[in-house]
Each structure stands twice: as C-alpha cells, then as structure tokens.
Amino acid sequence: MARTHGRGGAGIRKTNKKGATKGSGGQVKKGLEGKGPTPKAEDRVYHAKHKAKLERERRNSGRHQKETAEMVVGRNPVVECLHAKVPATSLYIVQGTRNDARLSEAVAIANSRNIPILEIQRHEMDRMTGNGMHQGIGLQIPPYKYADFHELMDRAKDAGEPGMFVILDNITDPRNLGAVIRSVAAFGGHGVIIPERRSASVTAVAWRTSAGTAARLPVARVTNVTRTVQEFQQAGYQVVGLDAGGEHTLDTYTGGKDPVVIVIGSEGKGISRLVRENCDVIMSIPMTAWVESLNASVAAGAVLSEFARQRRAAK
C-alpha cells in the first residue's frame, strides 16, 4: 500500500512518463532573449516622424513622377484637339463604331496630318481608357516637352529684345494655363513658367484652350518659383507681382518696355507669401469697385496688352 503524506491523504504518485510534467513551454526563455536595436523614430508606425517620412516620400514621388501619354476620348474633344493641332501619335477607332460627321472629320484630319489610324476591339479601348465612355474614338497625345527657363532667357537675349515672361503661381486649372499661353503668344511674350508641384500642366485641355499656340510658345517647369524669381532678377529682369493693393497700378507702371517677369497667382489664393516678398513691384489692375478680382488669364491678358503697347511706343 502506498504511503500517504499531508492533509486529506494526498499521495505521491509515481509515473513512468519521461521529462517534465509541467513547465513554461519555453516562454521564460523567449522572454529573456534580446529584441534587437530600437527602431528609428521614423520607422515606428505610431510615431509622428513616421507620418512625416511618408508625406516626404509622397511629395518626392509626385515631383519626379514620369510623364505619361494622355488619351483624349469622345468625338467632340478629339475633333477639337485635332483642329487645335495638338500633337498626337495615334487615332484609335473601335471596330464596328457607328460612323457620323464627327468621326469622319476626325479621320480626315488625322489622314491630312499623317497621324496613324488604328482599329482596335472595344475591350482594348475600355482597358486603355479605364471606362466605356469613349464613344468609340480616342486620340493619344505624347507627354509635353517642357523647356528650360535658362534657355528661354538666352533666346530672348539672342533675339536682341527685352524679354517678357509670365510665371504662374498656384494656378491649377489647365484652361487658365492654356488661356495665359495664348495671351503671352498674342502680345509678344517669350514664355510661361510654371512650378512642378501644385500647378496645372500642359495637358490636352490646356492645348485646346491655347488654340494651338502651345505648339509655338515654350513653357518651362521649375522646382522652386522663389528661386526662379531671384535668378530672373540677377539677369536684370524687373519682377512684377499682380495683387490687390499694390503700390502701382497698371495706369502708373511704365516699366513694361524693359525686361520684365509678370507673376500671377490664383483668383482665390493670389501669389504665395514668399514669392510676393521677392517681387520688385506689386501692381494691381484698376477696375470697378464692386468687382473683387479677375480670372488669372484675364488679368494676364490685360497686363500683357498694356506692356505690349509700351513696347510699341518705345520703338
């Protein structure tokens, strides 16, 4: 009979099972192991520096994003682009698309300009455009080739005439950009400068609004508008910022005949603070008291027209 010990007659039972009958399962050992070096603050997902890192990467990826071809779809937009002489690499027609006057016109213009016409299946057009609202026709437009603004200054200098440029700040509507390009071309300007970020770019919409002048008037894109303004100043340009409450008005400023850069901001935000502080002159446009502001392209046209008049009078 087994011998008992303790209260209640609890006994010690022998067993033939090998090894420990109860243990930590290795948890204590794992807990004692080192966890390695502490991650950097920017690598910890809960840390504010991690969020700042992600935002920095997002901005940089947008800044250096490769320009891609653009597909304009729909019968009216395609015909408008062709009439505006927007550069195009191919005209796509979906097989079996019902013919009408606009489709025939698009094909005729493409043939006259030696633009290749390709017939494709509907599912291919759906995949290329991302939707089925293309009306069976699409025009592929290559990425716009931006100029270098230093080269633009050199061109104006080589032409033996005072340069006249427009810098757009905070302009995000491509129609405004296209209209400004058209005005600069109409009044003898030498180019338009836009920032890489937070700005409209030369898309098919801008091409159409420019009425084809984007094919001849160069547009440059810069990383820093303030630094570009300072470089123009170092080259002998007077930088005129358009904003309300300026010390000059379009009636009193007479420097339009000299090398000049006109800085135009958006109708809502105006010119950025730092850019405004670096302008040589802040000028406003006289207008009826109850009208608060002008559209950017309208303001550009008014100033460019007056400066062109001053240049004609100085000859």
From TrEMBL:
SMART domains (UniProt xref): SpoU_sub_bind (SM00967)
Record keywords, A-Z: Methyltransferase, Transferase
One term under GO cellular component: cytosol
Region named Disordered: 1-67
Residues passing through the membrane, by range: none
Basic and acidic residues composition-biased segments: 54-67
InterPro entries tied to this protein: Alpha/beta_knot_MTases, Ribosomal_eL30-like_sf, rRNA_MeTrfase_TrmH, SpoU_MeTrfase, SpoU_subst-bd, tRNA_m1G_MTases_N
Taxonomy, superkingdom: Bacteria
RNA 2-O ribose methyltransferase substrate binding domain mapped to chain residues: 71-147
Family: Belongs to the class IV-like SAM-binding methyltransferase superfamily. RNA methyltransferase TrmH family.
The protein, known as: 23S rRNA (Guanosine(2251)-2'-O)-methyltransferase RlmB
Source taxonomy: Bacteria, Bacillati, Actinomycetota, Actinomycetes, Mycobacteriales
